Amino acid sequence: MKYSPLSSAKVLLLALTAFAHFSCEKENNETPAPNPQARLTAKIDSVCRASMSDNTVPGMSVVVVKQGQVLFNKSYGVSNLQTQQPVTADTRFHTGSTNKAMTAIAVMQLVDRGLIQINRKVTEYLPDFRMADARYQDITVEHLLTNSSGIEYGFEEGGFADDALEQQVAKLANQQLRFSPGQGYEYANAGWSVLGLIVQRLSRLPYENYMQANVFQRLGMNNTTLAYWTPNALGGTQGYVLSNQNEVTPLAPFLNRGYGPAGMVISTSNDIGKYLLMLLARGRNSQGEQILSESSVQAILTPHVDAESEMGYPSIRYGYGWEVVNPGQGKAPYLAHGGAIGSMAAVFILDPNQQVGVGLLFNRVDYNKVPVADAIRELATSN
């Protein structure tokens, strides 16, 4: 997902809009918000409503978690302009490249089980892995997790055959590396396909089945799936684009099972809240079960390499599937990632220092939702 550069002015404007809207509501209402949390959620709601006011995004679902609890979970607009079905917390959206950090969880679970060492060569786990560039033999698992393998970006639409992942990885046999492994940064969807194939081979389960059983089910993410090809997988949600005439027009998402580990997850704001809470709880689900070791969670959230932001942030490093943002001015870093799949998108933000997570899911790719997510993070961490 490639976003336009962030506008801090947009973030500030949205935050100020929230305060202004909330102040007006308070003045016109004899009964003030009963507590600080209610005031905070009212401000977040104002930001969300302001971001939807131009009517160019049909529907959006927003979840905010803080200090181990769901602080805010609200939806706006419709999932389908034809049916006028309202968006709810259980409305399904494609979440695009936010999926990468979920694949990192699968990899690190296998690290926890002693099946993977991240500094070992990929060819140790995939002996049939080949590229046209002899330097591929030096690619490690960690290079793939940090987009520092030298593999190029990669994405095209494709089918959903059972061997789609193997087919996608096999295509790399004709490709050169952009740079020597570990000597640069290149956002590489194809590298995540290689990681997914490693998970598939070592677990002896199709990648999608592994994720369903070991990540989604254990987190109670009951409306989350990678099987986009199954009937009614989206539950009627339609994706849209903005035409040259500024008309909101339906468009099917760009899909390829071979890129499943890079960005084919379908999920809901209810489920994303559970996912964010697990990361903030250092690997524990809502029942207290440790689905990922604390050290593995730390590895995922730790910055490992200098990187170029896909979301327009001026200064980032990269963890395992997360951008680590340095906001400057003495403020602590936080994590973010976006995902877009043609006509649907998502933005996730995680601030472990403040124990805050934000998830936005929407059915038109709208780059202005990045500053919306940041404005919500600012509100949640400052109140």
Automatic annotation (TrEMBL):
<dbReference type="InterPro" id="IPR050491">
    <property type="entry name" value="AmpC-like"/>
</dbReference>
<feature type="domain" description="Beta-lactamase-related">
    <location>
        <begin position="45"/>
        <end position="378"/>
    </location>
</feature>
<keyword id="KW-0732">Signal</keyword>
<protein>
    <submittedName>
        <fullName>Beta-lactamase family protein</fullName>
    </submittedName>
</protein>
<feature type="signal peptide">
    <location>
        <begin position="1"/>
        <end position="20"/>
    </location>
</feature>
<dbReference type="InterPro" id="IPR012338">
    <property type="entry name" value="Beta-lactam/transpept-like"/>
</dbReference>
<dbReference type="InterPro" id="IPR001466">
    <property type="entry name" value="Beta-lactam-related"/>
</dbReference>
<dbReference type="Pfam" id="PF00144">
    <property type="entry name" value="Beta-lactamase"/>
</dbReference>
